[in-house]
Amino acid sequence: MTSATNTLSPAVASVGGDVPDYFALLKPRVMVLVIFTALVGMSVSHGHVSPAIGAISLFAIAVGAGASGCLNMWWDADIDAVMTRTSSRPIPAGKITSSEALGFGLFLSVASVMVLGLAANWLSAALLAFTIVFYAVIYSMWLKRATAQNIVIGGAAGALPPVIGQAVVTGQVGIESLVLFAIIFIWTPPHFWALALIKAGEYARAGIPMMPNVAGPDSTRRQIVWYSLFLAPLGLVPVALGFGGLLYAVVGTVGGVGMVALSVRVLKNKTGEAEKKAAMGLFGFSILYLFALFSALLAEQSLGLFRAVVA
After folding, report:
1. What is d(CA 66, CA 111) in angstroms, rounded to the nearest whole number?
2. Rounded-to-integer distance, Cα 55 and Cα 76, Å
3. How far from 153 is each of 148, 157, 219, 263, CA to CA, in Å?
4. CA of residue 110 relative to chain centroid, distance
5. Backbone region of residue 216 per phi and psi (left: phi > 0; alpha: psi in -120 to 50; beta: other values)
6. Which of 2, 52, 146, 155 has the fewest beta carbons under 10 Å from its own?
């Protein structure tokens, strides 16, 4: 394996980027999703935390997620440079050096864990530390370049924020956050593989063994369908356990059917523009599905909209 430190020369990268460049290293769109899912994990917990502690904790979780994203960009700068959608990132674009990104990511990693531990509790801090290490080391440095199951196993890192959120509130991990973890974990492969079907050529040039490049596009399409078929009923488990209400049940049912229908469309459309439209349609809808699902939970738990489905 090689990292950015072996591929970017000092002549390419300038010293000292601007604030927006450093912010871009944190993958801000991912940070927003992390804040959102962690907040939902807090909202479904049976406990109470002061608004100040809750806000500080969410900030620390977001910074921790940003730190892992920064370390990921540091390590992956060599492959980011050859992929269209990532070539403008700060390191391959020469705005920030690899050493600066590494130092920034390590500092934020330690700081976010310490702040969360001091503000909330050390279980949540330990979970955040594990998430950072898992994403930056296990996924980025090992799984991503070693196996086509990179997204499947690596998806655990992106699924942990609700668990951390519940630990902030209760000091422990409960069934509610574990179910939310499972939903995000199973959602991740069909979400990313839909995009990978379209970007297979770029992944091949970068030497990344994504599923379409290793198992082939037909096998990937079938796996997308199977994961979506599993995800649809899994998304309704909160209703069965009593922490998802009527609104959530409606959103989960409609969204689950949509995921399955669009995955079948991906399976059937294998060439040309129809293939691209089907894959991007599933990719876009999967984002909407997860956002709507978690928004329904948050609305029910925080806005008094909960109406029990299961007595």
Report:
1. 12
2. 31
3. 10, 9, 18, 21
4. 21
5. left
6. 52
